[in-house]
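Structure ticket #2291
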Amino acid sequence: CVRRGCPPRDQPAEEKAQLLQNSEYQERMVESTFLYLTLDLPTAPLYKDEKEQLIIPQVPLFSILAKFNGSTEKEYKTYKENFLKRFQLTRLPPYLIFCIKRFTKNNFFVEKNPTIVNFPITNVDLREYLSEEVQAAHAHTTYDLIANIVHDGKPSEGSYRIHVLHHGTGKWYELQDLQVTDILPQMITLSEAYIQIWKRREEDETNQQGA
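Resolution: structure written out below.
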């Protein structure tokens, strides 16, 4: 990622320009390994329709993946400082784990963002999230979903389900406790996905998922 300090927003323009010359406000490149990629959901305003029923917002997967395009800046705050970060992928492993950040904690309670993420379950190409020089080293950049963990209900009282692809048959199954049922691929995308596992597609693989 690329990190740089963020001067106070209420700082006069001249003072802000001087601060930006200091080393703490210059961009620094930091390379780090990861176990999973955290995808941030936009703030979820809940609208009500004419029948006073809540309308849950939706967001495309590629919108929240934009965090890793190398140009989108995200602000982070600590007790001591504010800083901006830009992220870009430098390597694509055989398997990727996405953690969709649904839960936020404060001193009093945990909140859950119910936004639905719209995603295809096959052919997700991540090439654009690599720099041009890194792209040349990656012949395969397309991923297929193989597992999808869902959280239902309130943060403290909810339950979990998991959707798993059976590689031999290309069929999807839903697991909850001891219950196992088959599920249509298009139903998976309607759930409140929380953690996803994606498998990189190699050149000799064929699409067996029926989507």
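Closing remark: The two ends are 34 Å apart (CA to CA).
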